[in-house]
Batch of 3 targets.
Target 1
Amino acid sequence: MIGGSVAAVDLGATSGRVMIGRVDASAGTLALEQVARFPNGGVRLASGLHWDLTALHGHALRGLADAVRTEPGIASVGIDSWAVDYALFRGDRMLGEPFHYRDDRTERGVEAVHGTASFAELYRRNGLQFLPFNTLYQLAAEGDALTLADALLLVPDALAFQLTGVRAAERTNASTTGLLRVDDGEWDTELMDRLGYDRALFGDLVDPGASLGMLRRDMAAEIGASLEVVAVGSHDTASAVVAVPMTDPTTAAYISCGTWGLVGLELEHAVTSDAAREANFTNEGGVDGRVRFLHNVMGLWLLSESVRQWERETGEAIDLPTLLADATEVPAAAVAVFDANDPRFMAPGDLPARIAAWYREHDLPVPSTRASFTRAIVESLAEAFAGAVRDAADLAGRRLETIHVVGGGSLNRLLCQRTADRSGLPVLAGPVEATAIGNVLVQARAQGWFGTDASLERLRTLVASAYPPRRFTPQP
């Protein structure tokens, strides 16, 4: 057997999981087992909206202990999470809980950065779409806090540091900061100097598959085993794209659909044309030096936050499958499409009210029921996804034949079908747990379990065999 088991700590914006991944490359088998799941989300403090990274660390440790009890032979652990957010450290001490990217402090950071470097210049340097919460804007809003720190670590790197004592910056996630050069994938120290960011804060860059060392002795004692920590595609989308079962990346688009919908292509080289900048497409680092050329669409946040609001109003839980079934009965022609990427939908709170306000401002009928609101959200997301796929193909000069949807959105049959209908391309849905699978596969490859045939295409062949995607054919 060429294989074994590893653990994946997979952190999303609303929940986190610890998974055991079992890989046997010789037999062509791949399986996941969830051993722990825990909540995540923003915490409102006097200073603003934060993440509770301390709680996440505790949940991860307990989950890893459960994993070791379940599978004593685990070889390593890898950590992935959302991008852009970071913790500041002085020595071993974390200087407060990290800010949440949805905190409104970033607005003043944008103005400060663009006063020194225009967006056009930044795009030439880092290839990133404009998002007001990109790390370089957040840093401009920090004030004196940066002078107290001697290290800045993105969320997965911060957790890995707590586990190992090693400060490192995994490259795929570092590419989302706006401080990595798009041409060579190295820190842009000249830009750091111009913006007044101490280059000593930023750790040495490492690639997915690099060993970050063994657990600290006290962490190993708490977990019950001495494990190697391996850098994976620590930006969750980078891990998810590893597990997209594309037979030919040159003719396929992907949508990693969860809280956000990341819609794009896998390329060998970045696209930093004026047209790409004006379309607000981003060039982020992928595993094996690939480029994730994509556009951020608001994603299932629109639905989940609307459901939370309805539950707050009624005090009753809403069954999502029933709600989607009801939405399926609403004719598509009965609802108007709204702009899913309108910035007003970014913040937590009463999203249905904001969606209704958008309709009124555009002299369009407001959906009258929860089912029709849900149908409107699905139609608007499908249209945004289809438009982003078309734009990506045009900007990169690609002729596409399929769209792969992975992540939680792949379970939403209505969304997958309407994306196929609106794009005119077949949609292949699954796997649901793409991020954890990609995390596991990068670790498995680092352990040598794929031998000499360890290309991304080989890994994806295994994914397609273990998790055959569901096909949605465009309907007239």
Note: The chain has a mean pLDDT of 96.
Target 2
Amino acid sequence: MSEQSSSFEVNFDGLVGPTHNYAGLSYGNVASLNNADAISNPKEAALQGLVKMKAMHDMGLKQGIFAPHARPDVSALRRLGFTGNDAQVINKAAKESPVLLRTCYSASAMWTANAATVSPSQDTTDGKVHFTSANLNNKFHRSLEPSTTSNLLKAMFNDDEAFAHHTHLPDQPFFGDEGAANHTRLCDEHGAKGLEVFVYGASSLNPQIVGPSKFPARQTLEASEAVARLHQIPQEQRIFIQQNPDVIDQGVFHNDVIAVGNANVLFCHEQAFLDQAHALTKIRQAYTGEKLHIVEVPTHAVSVQDAVTSYLFNSQLVSLADGSMMLVAPEECVKNPKVADYIEFMLGANNPINSVKFFDLRQSMQNGGGPACLRLRVALTQTELSKVNQATLMSEEKFNTLNQWVEKHYRDKLSDHDLAEPQLLVETRTALDDLTGILNLGSVYEFQK
């Protein structure tokens, strides 16, 4: 069997962290803002995510686990002038700036679609899988993530002959980079050469490229171009498309809220891209595979608002072992009549998407992230998969172990008042110390060094 025919797309889902809370930190993310100050349930959130991971594994898909980050980020609070031991830092922050404390408690690293951009070895001139951690500088709470993300990626993909890791882009808006949430790869099959589609919201250098006026464009053209260079993607295998500024202003903060691709299928809303007809023509012309399917959802069937509230396009598209393609969608899609009707229509239409599975991800959805937000896609050959840290791959035993770990360490209720308790810091560090052993990660967290 050739390496091409034995290649897989592995989904590494973010394991929701013990400090999952609703702080409403993400301006431009409607769900995040609407649920600010609600009481969260970290235990339920983590268990919901594990159920999804296990279900993907049981379908015969390759499924991995991406560990959460250590929170609160006490070192960030110290950089902001809060002094003393850890407990004193937390107490002072709670009294002087509870908003900053909430920010440093954010469990947003659970959305690993923002962790990095990944290019498989079939697309890179050196034949390695390339990773660039996103700088996420548009939001302070997410800008705290890149260094730990890089540590985790290196612990998961720890063979220098197969994997290349790049430092995140400079930490300022000029190179705003939000990772794979604004990147997709189109190909006849995962082991074939692909077309890497980079979607940006604005340009830092070209004033003629008009961005959104209400909400920020989190991905710049310059960042996407830099990642493509770092990953050594040939010119003919990469394309840069602008997201529609109007839909960004309607709450489509990342491209994966309005479009998703898998293999030779691009599933998108008709308002996803600026000058959509021209954008889709460019994609069709650049695609060198045998056949590209573009499933374009009309506005009269599903409005942009319905797309945002249901997260229809923040679903996963996955290729099953029998060659069929499945939409992995949040339960909110069933509850929206127009979205549910469209999914039923799509499954009966002439396209490769022929089944759907719905998941309860309410805890994540309320904070602004659906199934696609929770996973980082990594296309790997069988040889490359064998070089991945095997302890980070899902199995029946791993699922049971992680469920027990969550039940042991996680709270089932978290409010602002709880964040002021230094005991929560002790609990989270104890939990993550145990987890690094379960996932064989080594000392990836600052508190372990």
Note: Confidence is low (pLDDT under 50) at residues 26-35.
Target 3
Amino acid sequence: MRVIWLLLVAAFVAILNETTMGIAIPHLNTDLGIPPELGQWLTSAFMLTMAIVIPTTGYLLQRFTTRQIFIAAMSAFTLGTLVCLLAPGFAVLLVGRVIQAGGTGIMMPLLMTTMMNVVPPQSRGRMMGRVGLVISLAPAIGPTLAGAVLNVASWRVLFAIVLPIAIIALAMGAKWMTNLGETTSAPIDVLSIVLSAFGFGGVVYGLSQFGGEGESGGATVGVVSLVIGGISLALFVWRQIVLQRVDDALLDLRVFRSRNYTIAVIVMAILALSMFGTLVLLPQYLQNVAGLDALQSGLVLLPGSVLMGLLGPVMGRIYDARGTRTLLIPGTIMVSAALFFYSTVGEHTVWWLLVIAQAIMSVGLAMSFTPLFSASLGSLRRHLYSHGSAALNTIQQVGGAAGVALLTVVYSSILHAGEHEGLETAAAGAPGARMAFLIAAIISLGAVALSSFVRKPADDVDAEFVGGH
């Protein structure tokens, strides 16, 4: 269990780092003199890098020892944090974020795969709930910490706070991390890595090109990027299907032969798109339209994040006792309802209504994530846990990056159009925020519709999954 807690500490540091940036982006846009659609790449590039790195973790977790992977991941995260701290401008800061994301992308599947291998099926919900408690503390602390720091100091202080925690986690892992499972000597397929990068990168970059400041050629670049991304993803899938016949796939797609796993992953992707897009757009709305400062924006997000963390163990026990639908159906409905409320906000929406809406959304996410993680991976055979975790985390990150790009683009497009007509920023940004939140709300209805089809797997996972060798 010491290994799991070490991984939880590392996950806490990574999520703390990621959640501080949402509040910081409006400040960075001003300090670095960049528009919102460029500043959001500090978040989008982070998630996109993880989406490129995570497909390789199914292979890496089988090829290298747990200790080797942990030290490599935390070293990359620590180095990236140092680069961000010392960055002289946007370009170097973006490079630092990418290096950080490389470490984070390895850490999350490592945590989930280790959990599945160590914890017995009948206790997985409860343990996933404890994971939820720990990793939800970071979203609770992150935005509020960022808001407080940014009110009195530079954005560099955010990285100065994360860096020593990362160094301590790395030192603890180097001393105490042990190896779990056996390694293999399968070769890595470089072509698969290239196709993965072009596929996921092309799709998210293409989305970000639509609706910026109306630059000529932006839509054309977006379409070309989406086409290249789509073709690359198709080739990536074909390549994996060929390679998995001899167990050499970078990402074994036989995990999708499980209907339960597939539906759970789709629901997770929809929730990730809505959640990450909203968490990046909401601080921009709160500061640019509602007129709150960074600290106040963080405090609006705080109650919901605390609730999400505290309810994690409760949701885990309910999942173990009652199964999936008791949590997932009302959970997805609550997320969708909160998003539809956000689609009605304006310049004069009172702050306490936003706190309530964010709390409802956070409770809904807590009710959804525990059963989705447990039910999806629990539907697979043990030898596919690492690939199932890699695929789940990949699609979650791509959904999140697409959500950030899509909602920010919609917001920025309407904001710039209003400003060009002579409106103040608050008046121009309000309809942009409403339209972006409405799009997220409509997309979230897909999760509501599919939630009743996800079920708790039998404890005998080999009987649950029809794929495999």
Note: The chain is about 80% helix and 0% strand.
